[in-house]
Amino acid sequence: QPVDLRANNLRPEPNLAGSSVLIADDDPIILRILGDRCRQLGLDVETATDGLRTLARVNEETPDLLILDLNLPDVDGFKVCEILTDPKYQPLPVIILTATSDAETIRRCESIGAFYIYKDERACETLDFVIKQIFVERSPSDPNSLVMDGHPQRPTRVLLVEDDQVVMKILAAALQSHGIATITARNGMQGFWLALKEKPDAIITDYHMPGGSGHYLLTRIKRTPGTWQIPVIMFTGRELSIRQCIAMDRDLRGRGQAAAFITKPIDADALLKELRRHLRVPPQVLTA
Question: N or C: which end of the chain has fewer CB within 10 A?
């Protein structure tokens, strides 16, 4: 998504030590400049000069972040992003750094949930901001720790996946008011990546999103050994076609499928009731 550097910069600085980035660009000067910049931020750096090497490095190195040029010599950047949706690859956040600035390119970046940065004199400054934003968003919020039998407990953590920021803030505030930490993602691809990294106690996701739908997220969660046991609660505000209703019904049936489906506008009490049903939490959590 296009980046607004006027956004709130008062969030805590993320600790990037031990995190890694793969930079894919066929220009050696760009690779050197970006590599030096990322190392200054504390990231381990790998590089690739074409699309095929990029895919191979993602598969072999499992980086925490991909910085990608669109105009690679063999497989273009958008095709790389499309291939990375295959379940054989671990999902990861993508920054597209390109000299292309037309509206269609920006729209396609938004549709796949990638960050768009235009290659100009401010690109490195913007890159620093976006990288810090990505790694801050990886970390859950930190309400006061819960205590049971005199011992501090890790707070219950819920991953919220929603492309509408207003809805996201409302849901996060409702959960945090009940002592639940929230992790947020803007689409299914980023949501799956965060689920792998953070291992939340539950996932609440919109069904319809660009850059990876709720169905995509559910499928990946339930087919992955490290995440299949996480309960997934889905919601939608759209009227569904017959085909979509059939797909949704399939998502709600059988072992390892969605835990529940809620329609918008979301009733906070109903949502908390569903969480109560599917989570093992201390008695003082999820109560009015």
Answer: C
